[in-house]
Amino acid sequence: MAAQDGLAANRALWDHLAEIHGTDPGDRSYDVQAFLAGGETLRGIERELAGDVAGRDLLHLQCHFGMDTLNWARLGARVTGVDFSSKAIARARTLAEQAGLAAEFVEADTQCLPDALAGQFDLVVATYGVLSWIGDLGAWMGGAATALRPGGRLVLVDLHPLFQTVLTFDPLVADWPYGGGAPQHDAMTGTYAHAEAFSEPRKSTQYPYSVGDIVTAAASAGLIVERLGEHTETETDGRHILPQGPDGLYRFPFSDTYLPILYSLTAALPPAPDGHPRDPGGAVGHDAAGQTPRGDRQQ
Ligand SMILES: C[S@@+](CC[C@H](N)C(=O)[O-])C[C@H]1O[C@@H](n2cnc3c(N)ncnc32)[C@H](O)[C@@H]1O
Fold it and tell me: Is residue 31 in a domain?
């Protein structure tokens, strides 16, 4: 079945990465010691879009080894992290103990979330390196919508599909489809966090989705799209291909302007007929900084 093409190999790949990410002093993305010392791991976009999470039930999809999930817990949310990697879930539970933070971690495929999660959350959050791993976008969006309470909101921040088409910036080479969801088979040697994550090239399967594919999937899942942001600046470039400006930010120059690097989508499950209030959340401007593109199509 096309949607499950590569799922087992992808899970094995992420099991390996869950054991090495954040363990090497040279890690380019995860600083576990800084997190344990109280450091912030979330970026400005998701913080602003989620708004005040204190007292909220928050589901973090594709949580990896849980550092961001636990950061939401530090901000006062009751958190549940989901990932299909058993190694990631085991490590996330250990990290929660080390950090002294309460959190639930559930091993599951985000394309078929457990029934027990249905209708339990005020917020569903997924960030940086999410949908390119998903063969069945409709199932993913349906699961996110089903997990929400009436009036609850999805906050999704990920690499922009246009940026994902690009292999190199200089020279400018684009070699990936813009959307459509057809499985793309690749061989990986390194990741956004660890340049030499694999001793030999590892097979991965990823899926390109356009902005239209993503917004349409959200609408088809019964979500009301509130805002779609396209972000042209970022504090770090997880793909390590963009030029860094004198202000320290990374941009994708194009003609006299910049192409988007990230997108952010906020969408709500309609309130219940009795008028259950919608979570007001926050808003982020077009050029919001503070975001970190991790998880790219070649992880
Ligand atoms: C790039 S990482 C996400 C990074 C994450 N935002 C963080 O805070 O570290 C992608 C994650 O998606 C997970 N994943 C990939 N496909 C999945 C699936 N079908 N179901 C659940 N988790 C999946 C991987 O195990 C991995 O932890």
Answer: yes
Pocket test for ligand 1, best of 15, 29, 83, 164 (most atoms within 8 A of CB): 83
68 Cβ inside 6 Å of ligand 1: yes
Domain that holds residue 57: 2-268
* Domain assignment of residue 194, yes or no: yes
- The residue behind tokens 């009795």 is 274
Which CATH number do you get for residue 113? Answer: 3.40.50.150
**Cβ–Cβ under 8 Å, residues 68 and 291:** no
Q: Is residue 290 part of a domain?
A: no
Residue 220, domain member (yes or no): yes
* Contact between 58 and 72 (Cβ < 8 Å): yes
pLDDT tens profile 120-175:
999 999 999 999 999 999 999 999 999 999 999 999 999 999 999 999 999 999 99
Q: How many CB atoms lie within 10 A of CB 291?
A: 25
In short, whether 81's Cβ falls inside 6 Å of ligand 1 is: no
- Euclidean distance between the first and final Cα of the chain, in Å? 23
Work out how many domains the chain is built from and give that number.
1
Question: pLDDT tens digits, residue range 9-46?
Answer: 999 999 999 999 999 888 888 889 999 999 999 999 99
Please give the distance, rounded to the nearest whole angstrom, from the Cα atom of residue 165 to the centre of ligand 1: 20
Q: Which of 62, 70, 106, 164 to mutate to test the pocket of ligand 1 (most atoms within 8 A of CB)?
A: 62
